[in-house]
Amino acid sequence: MPSSPGPADAVVACRDLHKRYGALEAVAGVSFDVHPGEVFGLLGPNGAGKTTTIEILEGIREADGGEVRVLGLDPRREARQIKARIGVQLQTASLYPYLTVGELIDLFGTFFPRRLPQQRMLDALELNEKRDAQTRTLSGGQQQRLSVALALVNDPELVFLDEPTTGLDPAARRSLWNVIRDLRTQGKSVLLTTHYMEEAEVLCDRLAIMDHGQLLELGTVEELVSRRFHERAVHFADIAGLEDSRMQGFPGVKRVAYEDGEVLLYTADVPATIGAVLAAADALDAPPHDLSVRRASLEDVFLDLTGHALRD
Amino acid sequence: MDALLSLTVANMKSFVRDRAALFWTIAFPVIFVVLFGTLFGGGGTADYRVGWVDQDRTLASAQLEQAFAKLGVLTLTTTDQASGLASARNGQLDAVIVVPAGYGAATAAAGSAAAPGAPLALTLYTDLSHPTDAQTLEQIVSGVTTGVNQALSGRPPLLSVQTRPIQGSAVPTGATYYVPSILAMAIMQLGVFAAIPLVQQREKLILKRIGATPLPRWTLVGSNVLLRLVIASGQTVIILGIGIVGFKVQVTGSWVLIAGIVALGALMFTSLGYVIASFTRTEEAANGVTQVVQVLMMFLSGIFFPIDLMPDWMKTVATLLPLTYLGDALRQTMVGGSPFVPLTVGLAILAGWLTVCLGISARYFRWQ
């Protein structure tokens, strides 16, 4: 038996994970560790291979190649032991439509050797007033909360959340973020996937950026940003006639990028760059609209890594 | 065990709260029982195999045999009363007619001036588990006796017909044929309809979600089977209850054997449901296939139309369909109906279907 990959205390360790569907290589050599007690995020667009990766770790899909340990166990041979100790929320939230919230929580409890009282889940996910409602009558946000509640019935050490806030309105999203923060406070480890930059920035202790089945970058948000961007970005609506090559020559500018009809000038000297932009705009008689400055964000990291913006 | 029971209860709740499922498995068969029990009648024109028992052996009784033979719808076989009734009970004859000794003497007396005593009775033994046939035969026989009586016009009626069931002591009613059929139909529907929630749960990834828990898969299958068995018991009680209370059906067979056949039928058709779920991906497809399967079974398996009335190609189909044998086995055990095949053969065929369906499901059923 090969020795366990990664640090001895990693709750998830995977090395060179591969999974192929016909001609499509969904996961092409992914390696990362999740440390105990951290919220780890897989960030990437739809089709990046996030769900396939997470489902291999959950033991409901088999990898074609690579080495995986979850809680020190091998999902290929010890899936049942793993499943007893993890919590799983799948991307789709629909469940037995004719059962009530309370019944469903109790039912799932019986699937595990160890379970928490129903009331704990209802309180944590703010589902108390929906306890006797059939699940088909729940709103999208409530269904999603129920889905997370079911992932917690066995008081898991490690929780997998696959796009937990997709399709939720901002208020519902924030309320789920609080639930995930609570999980970390309780010392649980969380592995979540998302394609929301903001969510990854707010929630994740560390994250990996994934695209086309590969991990492009891994670290804390701070690390990811500072690794690439020492500069700040001066951005404004694209001005006709202002050439790319000319902006490259503005004082302080390291790099020029475009995003959503906006120009981004990554610069080491914000005042000098802004001065140059204003002067050039004045000369062209085209005032720069929406001129502002920002620190590089995860969005910039993603754009820089993949050459395309991350959207829903 | 905890999980198995909880899952079964959860499935039961889902089932009861889903009004459509409840209608098809409980209300629909009940409507059938009431409709058929009330409206059965009418009939087909089959060639009936009739045992001819001539206890008179005179010229007159031979002429009576000729009169029946000339009708063209009866195939008469000369026999004695005991072996004729035995043949009728195992399905080789549809009816037995007994001409009592003294018939020749009575007609001779009627021809003369001497007044006869009480009218002489032909005895017609029919299989009341096939009420349509029984009624038709009774009409045919009384048609002939009326003819004989008219030929001796001006005289008090000479001949009467006494009808008796081949089953002997039990006095079956018309619903006797249909109640086992409807029970068989209900069990068939219950089983094949198992495909729909399965495909639904797979499509909505409920099966996948449960697959992410340590619950063993046999528990999931087990709870499904348990649910179907519980509902089948409920159907049996309700349908037989209505038959017994409302339509005076007398159950002659062993309750243990009936329960066993119901269970075998429920298992067999549930496994057929799994087969359907193995080859359909969407709920709509499962719905369509299930409907087609159940309608074909219902009309081609001889549970509502006697197999003897079917054209040959249909007969061939009927002998292949499992519902034929479930209906036949239930009819034999519950009301002593005449067998299409011996009980052990029927049960063996059902067990064979069960085995094949299990094999196919084990090979092709997908959880996600």
How does this structure look, described?
The complex is a heterodimer of chains A (312) and B (368). Chain A is of the alpha/beta class. Chain A is built from eleven helices and 13 strands. In chain A, the strands form three sheets. Chain A has a six-stranded mixed β-sheet with strand order 5-6-7-3-8-9, sandwiched between helices. Chain A has a four-stranded antiparallel β-sheet with strand order 11-12-10-13. The longest helix of chain A is centred in the middle third of the chain and has 16 residues, at 170-185. Chain A is elongated and about 75 Å long. The two termini of chain A are 42 Å apart. The mean pLDDT of chain A is 89. Chain B has 368 residues and is α/β, with parallel strands linked by helices. Chain B has a five-stranded mixed β-sheet with strand order 2-1-3-4-5, sandwiched between helices. In chain B, helix 3 links the parallel strand 1 and strand 2 (74-78). The A-B interface holds A 58-60, 80-81, 83-84, 88, 90, 92, 94-99, 103-104, 106-108, 110-113, 134, 150 and B 2-3, 6-7, 10, 13-14, 17-18, 201, 204-206, 208-216, 368.
Keywords summarizing the entry:
heterodimer, A: 312 residues, alpha/beta, Rossmann fold, Alpha-Beta Plaits, six-stranded mixed beta sheet, four-stranded antiparallel beta sheet, 11 helices, 13 strands, B: 368 residues, abc type-2 transporter like fold, 2 domains, 15 helices, 8% strand
